[in-house]
Design a protein that fits this description.
This protein is mainly alpha-helical. About 50% of the residues lie in helices and about 5% in strands. It has a two-stranded antiparallel ribbon.
Length: about 120
């Protein structure tokens, strides 16, 4: 049985990601920049996926290209080391949403190399 998050609509969680970032003093455009940098979607592609009301599994399977630097995101999320999560989709979800939004918006992306000028990801 798939974890419930896999079948959860991305569009239902997206506003929560924005709210989380805003509580940390960040903006929706910064969240979008992180998501686009990590998934390869451009702004219009991201918005199209939100409108289509697709689930997380589809969101990632249709992503143009997961940034290779996403694999360098490490750390502990909800008591689990990201790099040791066995399910590839769950690992992407945890890396992108928790570490990407928590650490990537306007700052360092969990030790990942690479630059995303609009969200200030630094090597």
């Amino acid at each position: 049985m798939k974890p419930r998050i896999f079948t959860t609509a991305f569009s239902s969680v997206y506003p929560l990601l924005v709210q989380k970032a805003e509580r940390k003093g960040r903006t929706k455009s910064e969240v979008d920049a992180v998501i686009c940098w990590l998934t390869g979607y451009d702004d219009s592609g991201l918005q199209a996926q939100i409108v289509k009301n697709i689930n997380y599994e589809t969101f990632f399977s249709e992503a143009p290209q997961i940034n290779p630097n996403a694999a360098k995101i490490s750390g502990v999320i909800c008591g689990h080391r990201v790099e040791k999560i066995e399910d590839p989709l769950m690992q992407k979800i945890r890396r992108v949403w928790n570490k990407g939004i928590d650490q990537g918006v306007g700052g360092r992306l969990g030790g990942a190399d690479g630059v995303c000028a609009s969200c200030q990801l630094v090597p």
